[in-house]
Amino acid sequence: MELLSKHLVVAPKSGFEKSFLGDTSRLKLSVHQKFSSHCRPAPRASFGNGNTIKIPKQWYNLVADLPQKPPPPLHPKTHKLLNPEDLSPLFPHELIMQEISDERFISIPDEVVDIYRLWRPTPLIRAKRLERLLDTPARIYYKYEGTSPAGSHKPNTAVPQAYYNAREGVRNVVTETGAGQWGSSIAFACSLFGLGCEVWQVRASYDQKPYRKLMMQTWGAKVHPSPSNITEAGRKILQMDPSSPGSLGIAISEAVETAATHDDTKYCLGSVLNHVLLHQTIIGEECLEQMGDIGETPDIIIGCTGGGSNFGGLAFPFLREKLSGKMNPVIRAVEPAACPSLTKGVYTYDYGDTAGMTPLMKMHTLGHDFVPDPIHAGGLRYHGMAPLISHVYELGFMEAVAIPQTECFQAAIQFARTEGLIPAPEPTHAIAAVIREALHCKEAGEEKVILMAMCGHGHFDLAAYDKYLQGNMVDLSYPSEKVEAAMASIPKVLL
Description:
It is a single chain. This protein is an alpha/beta fold and 495 residues long. The protein folds into 2 domains: 47-56 and 110-152 and 275-489, Rossmann fold; 153-274, Rossmann fold, CATH 3.40.50.1100. It is built from 18 helices and 18 strands. It has helices at 2-6, 93-100, 110-116, 128-134, 155-167, 181-193, 203-208, 210-218, 232-240, 248-260, 274-280, 282-293, 309-323, 387-394, 405-419, 425-444, 462-469, 480-486; strands at residues 7-9, 17-19, 36-37, 40-41, 58-60, 105-107, 124-126, 139-144, 172-177, 196-202, 222-226, 265-267, 300-304, 330-336, 346-351, 360-365, 399-403, 449-454. The strands form 6 sheets. Strands 7-8-18-13-14-17 form a 6-stranded mixed sheet, with helices on both faces. Strands 11-10-9-12 form a 4-stranded parallel sheet, sandwiched between helices. α13 (309-323) links the parallel β13 and β14. The protein is globular and about 60 Å long. The chain starts with a helix and ends in a 9-residue tail after the last helix. The beta subunit is responsible for the synthesis of L-tryptophan from indole and L-serine. InterPro entries: Trp_synth_b-like, Trp_synth_beta, Trp_synth_beta/beta-like, TrpB-like_PALP, TrpB-like_PALP_sf. GO terms for molecular function: L-serine hydro-lyase (adding indole, L-tryptophan-forming) activity; pyridoxal phosphate binding; tryptophan synthase activity. Its EC number is 4.2.1.20.
C-alpha cells in the first residue's frame, strides 16, 4: 500500500504515467484507471477515499440556469432571428436542437459513452512538485485531457458530432483546424463511424506542424492548407494576398462553402457553438465528482480560452454550483496577448467566418477579418469568443486576463521540469496564470485550492518550444487601434 501511495499509474490506455516522491501524507488524488475491451468497462483503480468515478451519462447545458438568456443568433443576410431550418445545410437535426436547447441536461448516447471509455474518465492530478518549486501554500490541481487518442479535449465533441452525422445518413463532414488538435480529433471520430473527412488547416500551422497533418491523414482525412484554390472563398483571399498565412475565419469559410454546396456533406466545428461547449461539460461533471471524492472545493478555476470549449467544459458545471450557492470559486479565463478577444474585443454581433457565410453571433470579437501573426505560437487564434462565454463574461460571473507568450512558455518549462508533462501551447496560458496565483498565495500566506484545465499535451508542438529555448520567441500584442479599425467591417445590426 505504501508503494501504491507513492506511484500512481494513470489510464494505461493512454500511456501516461505519473509518480510522486517524498511526503505522501497530504496526497489527495482521485486518479482512475480504466481499460477498454470491446467498449466495455473493466475494473478501475481508485486513489483517494476509495470511490470510483464513472463517466457522466449527461451533458450539462448552462443556458438553463442563467438569469438572463444569451442573445440569439441572426441570419447572415437578413439579420433576422435565425430559424433552426436555416442551419440544416450545415448540421444534422440533433445538433441543431442541442444548439438552441434550454434543457438543463441532455443524455449522452450509449454509443458515444462506449467510445468515451477509450480514455475517460480523465485524471485529476495534484501538481505537488510544481507547488514545491513555487514554495506556495496553494494546492494546485489540474484536470488532464491529454489522455485522449488525439491528445486533447477535442474528441469529447468530435465523437458525438460524428455520431449524430452518421446516424442521420451523412456521408462526409468538413471542418477547419488551426493548431491541428481539432482536425486530428474529428478525423479520429470519423474513422470510427465510416465518415469521409476533409479538413482545411490554417496555412501557417499546416507548414509548421507536418505531423498533425500526417495524424489526420492516418485516420483517413484529406487535409488542405487554407487559404486554398479549392473554394471560392480561398481563391478570393489568395488573389488579395498570395502569401496569406491564413486564419481560422478563412478556413471556416472554406469548409462552410464546401458543406453548403454538397448535399451529402455537413460541417463540424470544434469550439464556439453552444452544442460544442455542451459536449465538453463532461470534463467539469467528472471533475466535480473527483474534487468531491477527495474533499476539496476550488477557490479559483483557471483555463485557457481561444474559442472557449475547454474552458467552458471545465467551468460551466462549477458555475452551476456557484449560481446555486453551493460554492463560490473565482472563474478566470486566460487568453493570448496576441489574440485578446475577451480583454480587448468588442461585444457585438459578428460573423463566425471571414467571408460572412455563418450566422451572426453576439460575442467578444476582434473582427472577422482578423488574421493572427504567424509567429504566434500554438492555437488560441480565433477572432471571436464563444457567444455563451461572452455572455457569461458580460453578466460578471467570470473574469479574463491576457498573457504574453514568452511568460506562457516560461511557465510551461517550469511545469514540464516538475510535473513531467509537456503542455500544448494553449494550456501554457493557464499554467502561467496558475503560477501567478500561486505566487500571490505565497506572498499573502493563503492556502487556496487552484483548479486548472490542462487541455492537452504538446508532443506535436515542439517547434514552438525550440523557438523559445533558442531565445527566438518574441511577445506579440494586439493594439486597440486595430480592433477599432476592424469594427468598420462588422455588420450593423438593429434589433
